[in-house]
Design brief:
six-stranded mixed sheet, D-Maltodextrin-Binding Protein, domain 2, 37% helix, 11 strands, 2 domains, 24% strand, disordered C terminus
């Protein structure tokens, strides 16, 4: 291309290792980096306002053309820490759930767990602004990202969606992947992977540059988030997309 590649990244703590290389000068002549919350980045990719986005994987079926261009992602293989259903009552007593407007994938994952695994029937309520104060009595809330790490200190009950998916399917979960809406040169993809890897090779530096007192960031980056889109993670992703596309209520086990 005769211009820089427009790359959209999520502005959460969990993306800091992946964008560390870009923020420290790697591919500065090839990439323009913009940051927003997940669903905004997804909308920008669909509108061709960016060329590559670290986007919620639930939008994949909506893209005319899509290419997963990187060996790295935002995922988990068990507890993820920052994607949770929070409540003041146990699951079976929840009557309403407020849905996080910032990520489609987490909402779709929650719906699958509600229908197929937990087998509960709460009223689901979309939101457009901060709703955490409304998590009370029998009203629960799905919260993702840095706000979820904060909410862990507040709510009586928390149901980690990464852990619940693992118990349900035995597989990792992929929340977001680097997806392009057009074919990109192999040399660009190779350099892009190297830039992603830089932060993962310098986790202590990433931690030191991002102060967060409510959660152990080194543990978060190394024990909760899985950044590697390996074959097992791809299998979990394929299962999720398959359930999403079919609307099936069949247990995948």
């Amino acid at each position: 291309m005769d211009r820089k590649i427009r790359v959209g990244a999520v502005n959460y703590l969990n993306t800091k290792p992946l964008i560390y290389g870009f923020e420290n000068g790697e591919m500065r002549d090839e990439v323009d980096l913009v940051a927003a919350y997940p669903s905004k980045i997804a909308a920008m990719l669909k509108a061709n306002e960016i060329d590559v986005g670290l986007v919620p994987v639930a939008i994949i079926p909506e893209l005319k053309d899509h290419y997963i261009i990187s060996d790295y992602c935002i995922g988990c293989d068990g507890e993820v820490g920052s994607v949770c259903l929070f409540s003041e009552v146990s699951l079976e007593k929840i009557e309403k759930i407020l849905l996080d407007y910032q990520s489609r994938t987490s909402v779709e994952l929650l719906k699958i767990l509600i229908k197929q695994y937990w087998k509960i029937d709460p009223v689901l309520i979309s939101t457009a602004e901060d709703y955490r104060k409304d998590i009370k009595d029998t009203t629960a809330g799905l919260i993702i990202g840095d706000r979820a790490l904060e909410q862990r200190k507040i709510s009586l009950y928390k149901y980690d969606l990464g852990l619940e998916w693992k118990k349900f399917t035995g597989l990792p979960f992929v929340f977001a992947a680097w997806i392009s809406n057009k074919k990109l040169d192999a040399s660009f993809i190779e350099d892009f992977n190297k830039a992603n890897l830089t932060g993962l090779q310098h986790i202590d530096k990433v931690v030191n540059e991002n102060h967060f007192e409510l959660f152990d960031l080194k543990a978060y980056f190394t024990s909760y988030i899985n950044y590697y889109l390996d074959e097992k993670a791809k299998k979990g992703l394929q299962l999720f997309l398959g359930i999403l596309n079919s609307g099936s209520s069949q247990n995948p086990n």
